[in-house]
Design goal:
Length: 968
């Protein structure tokens, strides 16, 4: 079920691995105590260190720094010259790591219904503590190494500063108050946990009296009562709970709770977020068992042995839409990643992936078997799993295109409450959500993720989301991976289980089934309540094997018959179109769409029906852009609201391969005549159609192609948004979700010659119709006219090129904090150079092309700081109440703010309200009005752009606006 994302071979077995939450960095430590930081996106080693011994490069670097600072010979032995010993743990630490650690703890605690009075939904970003630095932290037996990957300067904390006890594990304890330095807790060989400050590098606290053996693992989390806790596991088999509340002044803290967890010692601890319940702790021990603990009563909920006779060494909480029943991943010393299904109920263990199948055979020696020694899941992208093996580190990818089983419902006119339907296990549920600006918002809202990193001058508006979940008393037949979609009218909900395969169509008002059957994919028409199905023909029954034949021949015959039956079923699978009538019954209107003989592998709904075929024909990269040369596709008859339904099955041309090398195997068909429209295209990942059917977007791996549809199909351009998983149109705004970001594409088709011709033809048709009516009413005398000065209005229409502008709204990364060594240095005043330098800086501020999210305040950037993207795969609901709504894999709604003036003005102009866009521009720094005027000109609002008060006289923008207005 997993496929290879990246692989780095090593000469020794990898025993420690960690992933950075926001950067494509992976740190490993091997059995020889060599630590490496690897950029898995670019396959590049960033840094290597001999942490177990003495690294000569670091030692020479320290001596050079001391000489540069004026120091002579070192008075004592530098800490860099101390042998580190065995590497026990490696990790990253910076503002991103700190933020997402706090977010994980808070969001897990907020799920518990009992937490409503304790854990509020307000989650403000902690103050930056590392000031732009990215620390690599290495916990060795004899010392802890803190290496800044920005400046390449390090700080070593020897065990002499920690009561001369060996360091075996570590955990970061973050304070949320401004100005507080981060703290690091180290588990010692004597059972004591010691905490140091990364500001003073001094020991500030001890946790004593909990363990009689060496501390092996540490974890911080938040209880449903809102208390910050630290849990530790040790070789004595105890699980000990401590208070991590840093407001206490005591330097010696005693345990809050101690309980026996595992015989032989605790190996690892993991925090598990439970949908609708309090968080749970997962522990694995030397007794080869895995235990799950309730964090309210701290009672054992379940104990299992995932792999008989083998001890687990790694565990990860997991929640991925493609496998909704698998909650825990674990590894033993074999070649598998194991998954545990419903761990508190059935607790079935199944292999998720056989890693040997991902590695090229030549990398495995004939006498060497693959063995896994460590495993970690990406904290923000659940489709990425890293494993350390005896031949290298493997980064696996698990279907990044899978989306949560959620479908939005239309909002009644005038209502402020919005709703969606989601599927959990075998239950359909409502999710009702709306903005709530009360002082005590309901628990469970993660909407305030958008209110982070705000700087002076930006809006301080906090988006609180009020949401509730309600059951729908309708049985659902399956609990496997499902895809939900709603018809254009919102009256019907379709659920497809592609792995079964099976589908059901429900009436929304009473949740009765109106249609069901066998199908792998379902796609809706955006104009009427009709849908297309990719049917799955049942394979014919196997022939009866007579008793007289041998068992071997019988098996061979059965396998051959099964292969023939499967091939026959695949060839018979066709695309069928059904319509939902007014009496809520279904009728088949096309039994087979398309006359092509190739098997169908994908359907895409929308104003046109897209069908992807399986073919082996490849095209060159230059031919892949042939989408711009599609034949004319007049679509003036199409128009409706609704989302494009998209779904596809795994095939030879899935997302791991570049769209440039894909064949032309995608054909669009009319929903009315079921005839092909245009020529063949490369198969997109998904399609999105504008609600008014004026624009469409086809997504590929490396870019998104955007086209206009009226008066005829016209290619506008493509935007380099990689690996997009979904999008929704809001007039001339396309909101796109990727695994790491949320983008907004502002689109305008401009004015092309075909638009002028179409306008001329329409005017001539109107004149002829008016003459015909006049003759019918008044006779031939109505045609008499007095000649006067003629004006040709068509010549005054200025052609305008298409405009595509991309703004990044949200990402995982923290708002950038500028370290002192990267700021502009002070300049001495020599012959007036200072004034010219300042003038150059001011010129750069007003003229540079800003990137969305890169600014510090409204006065120096056109766009806001990037907001925080919710974790994991997302369904984008749309723009309602002036915010962008999204739903995550935990079935929580998030509101993304669009209130920054730089965004608000563009959204209003794209929506068609240019007057309000000019009014909102008063809240934007005047130095950005030139840029906004250029945007409004590209959108076709030259007259309104002239009213922007901050248009610069020294630039040509005002002249261009005036000339454009005169031509109009």
């Amino acid at each position: 079920m997993l496929r290879l994302k990246a692989f780095r071979p090593t000469t020794d077995k990898v025993v420690n691995v960690q992933l950075h939450p926001t950067h494509p960095w992976l740190v490993t430590a091997d059995a020889s105590d060599r630590v490496s930081v690897w950029n898995w996106e670019h396959h590049q080693v960033i840094y290597e260190l001999k942490a177990g011994g003495v690294d000569e490069r670091r030692l020479v670097g320290v001596k050079l720094e001391k000489l540069a600072e004026g120091e002579s010979d070192a008075r004592g032995k530098p800490t860099e010259a101390i042998r580190g010993g065995s590497v026990k743990q490696v990790n990253f630490y910076d503002d991103d790591v700190r933020f997402w650690q706090l977010w994980r703890n808070r969001s897990a605690a907020a799920e518990a219904p009992s937490a409503v009075n304790y854990v509020t939904s307000t989650f403000s970003s902690p103050a930056p503590s590392t000031k732009g630095r990215h620390f690599l932290v290495i916990c060795c037996e004899n010392k802890a190494i803190f290496l800044d990957l920005v400046t390449m300067r390090g700080r070593d904390v020897p065990k002499q500063d920690l009561d001369n006890k060996s360091l075996l594990c570590m955990e970061f304890i973050s304070r949320s108050a401004a100005g507080d330095a981060p703290l690091v807790a180290f588990g010692g060989s004597d059972g004591v946990i010691r905490v140091i400050s990364m500001l003073t590098w001094k020991l500030i606290r001890r946790y004593t009296g909990g363990h009689k053996g060496a501390v092996a693992c540490l974890l911080t989390f938040m209880s449903s009562s809102g208390e910050a806790l630290l849990v530790s596991g040790a070789s004595d088999g105890l699980l000990v709970l401590w208070s991590a509340d840093l407001g206490q002044d005591s330097r010696e803290l005693v345990p809050k709770l101690s309980l026996k967890a595992h015989d032989g010692g605790v190996v690892a601890i993991e925090l598990s977020r439970v949908i609708g319940g309090a968080p749970q702790l997962i522990t694995i021990g030397a007794d080869k068992s895995l235990a799950i603990w309730d964090t309210i009563s701290f009672k054992e909920l379940r104990r299992i042995k995932p792999v008989p006779k083998m001890a687990c060494h790694s565990v990860a909480s997991w929640c991925h839409p493609r496998a909704p029943n698998l909650d825990i991943l674990t590894c033993v010393k074999d070649s598998h990643i194991w998954a545990i299904e419903h761990p508190t109920y059935s607790a079935l263990t199944r292999p998720l992936c056989e890693l040997s199948s991902l590695i090229p055979p030549q990398l495995l020696a004939s006498n060497k078997k693959l063995r896994v020694y460590c495993m970690v899941a990406h904290p923000l992208q659940p489709h990425l799993v890293a494993t350390g093996t005896n031949i290298g580190v493997i980064l696996s990818e698990f279907d990044p295109r899978s989306l949560p089983a959620v479908a939005p419902l239309p909002t009644p006119l005038g209502s402020r409450e919005h709703s969606a339907v989601f599927l959990v296990e075998r239950e359909l549920k409502y999710l009702h959500f709306q903005l709530n600006n009360s002082t005590n918002p309901s628990l469970g809202s993660n909407g305030t993720l958008s209110d982070v990193g705000r700087s002076k001058g930006e809006s301080s508006e906090t988006l609180h989301v009020k949401q509730i979940k309600k059951h729908i008393s309708t049985p659902v037949p399956h609990d496997s991976y499902s895809v939900l979609s709603v018809s254009s009218s919102g009256k019907y909900l379709a659920i497809v289980w592609p792995d079964i395969p099976y589908f059901s169509v429900y009436k929304v008002h009473d949740w009765q089934i109106v249609d069901s059957g066998s199908a792998r994919i379902l796609a809706w028409d955006t104009c009427r309540d009709r849908f297309a199905l990719l049917e799955s023909a049942s394979p014919s029954k196997l022939p009866v094997i007579h008793k007289g034949s041998s068992s071997k021949k019988a098996k061979e015959a059965a396998a051959a018959q099964a292969a023939v039956a499967a091939a026959s079923a695949a060839s018979m699978a066709g695309v069928q179109v059904r319509i939902l009538l007014d009496d809520e019954s279904t009728n088949v209107i096309a039994k087979s769409v398309g006359a092509r003989s190739e098997p169908v592998i994908g359907l895409h709904g929308g104003a046109l029906l897209g069908i992807a075929y399986r073919t082996s024909r490849r095209i060159s990269p230059s031919t892949a852009t042939a989408i711009s040369t599609i034949q004319s596709m007049p679509l003036s008859g199409f128009g409706s609201t609704g989302l494009s339904s998209f779904s596809m099955v795994d095939d030879d041309f899935s997302s791991q391969k570049s769209s440039e090398a894909a064949p032309q195997n995608f054909q669009l068909y009319s929903w009315e005549t079921f005839q092909p429209v245009g020529s063949l295209l490369p198969q997109p990942e998904w399609t999105a159609w504008d609600q008014t059917v004026e624009y469409c977007a086809f997504a590929y791996q490396e870019y998104i192609v955007i086209s206009s549809l009226r008066p005829q199909y016209r290619y506008l351009g493509d935007v380099a948004i990689h690996h997009a998983t979904g999008a929704i149109w809001h007039r001339r705004q396309l909101f796109v979700v990727t695994p790491t970001t949320i983008e907004c594409v502002f689109v305008d088709a401009g004015i092309a010659p075909i638009d002028v011709e179409t306008k001329k033809l329409k005017e001539e048709m109107r004149k002829k119709e008016a003459q015909t009516r006049a003759v019918a009413e008044h006779g031939e005398l109505a045609l008499i006219s007095v000649e006067g000065p003629k004006s040709n209005t068509h010549e005054r229409i200025k052609l305008r090129p298409p405009m595509l502008q991309v703004v990044r709204l949200a990402s995982f990364q923290h708002a950038p904090s500028i370290p002192p060594f990267l700021t502009l240095p002070k300049q001495s005043k020599v012959d007036g150079e200072e004034s010219s330098l300042l003038k150059e800086v001011e010129e750069r501020k007003s003229n540079e092309v800003a990137v969305g999210g890169g600014g510090v305040s409204v006065t120096v950037t056109r766009f806001p700081n990037e907001q925080k993207r919710p974790v994991g795969p997302l369904i984008v609901i749309g723009v309602r109440d002036g915010v962008l709504w999204l739903v995550d894999r935990y079935m929580f709604a998030h509101a993304l703010s669009l209130s920054h003036p730089g965004i608000r003005c563009r959204c209003l102009a794209a929506y068609g309200d240019a007057v309000s866009a000019v009014k909102w521009a008063s809240r934007l720094g005047r130095e950005h009005h030139d840029d906004l005027a250029q945007f409004m000109l590209g959108m076709g609002y030259a007259t309104e752009a002239l009213h922007l008060p901050g248009i610069s006289k020294r630039q040509s923008i005002a002249r261009e606006l005036i000339n454009h207005k005169m031509r109009m």
